[in-house]
Amino acid sequence: MDTSVAIQVLPMMEDEEKLVAAVDKAIEYIQSTGVDYQVGAFETTIEGNYDQLMDIVKNITKITADAGAPQVMSYVKINYKPEGQVLGIHEKTDKYQH
């Protein structure tokens, strides 16, 4: 695993129920890809191969829009280590889980 990505999609919608449904579609898409992921309160972290994760990043904003959002803001953080492995989700967060 050479890459870790944190992605936050913000559907620009006033109806909170529809907003949550659009975000749920984005998370369902991430689940369908088979990558390791962790959903957080503000963003979802995904781990894996750089090219696969970049495809997910490319598609997720469109998937959120297709779920009914007339406009979507996406914020992405990428940790890429071409030689070796990045620290994984569990290495970073397990000691803080309750």
**CATH architecture annotation name:** 2-Layer Sandwich
User: What's the structural domain tally?
Assistant: 1
Contiguous uncertain segments of 5+ residues:
none
Strand order of the largest sheet: 2-3-1-4
* Overall pLDDT confidence: 94
Rg, alpha carbons: 14 Å
Description:
- This protein has 98 residues and is an alpha+beta fold.
- The protein has one domain (3-82): Alpha-Beta Plaits (2-Layer Sandwich).
- Helix content is 41%, strand content 28%.
- It contains 3 helices and 4 strands.
- Helix 1 packs antiparallel against helix 2 (50-66).
- The radius of gyration is 14 Å and the shape is globular.
- The chain starts with a strand and ends in a 5-residue tail after the last helix.
- The model has no long low-confidence stretch (mean pLDDT 94).
List keywords for this structure.
98 residues; globular; 4 strands; alpha+beta; Alpha-Beta Plaits; four-stranded antiparallel sheet
Quick summary:
This protein has 98 residues and is an alpha+beta fold. It contains 3 helices and 4 strands.
Which helices and strands occur, and which strands form pairs?
Layout: E1 3-11, H1 16-33, E2 36-39, E3 44-48, H2 50-66, E4 72-80, H3 89-93
Antiparallel strand pairs: 1-3, 1-4, 2-3
Helix pairs in contact: 1-2
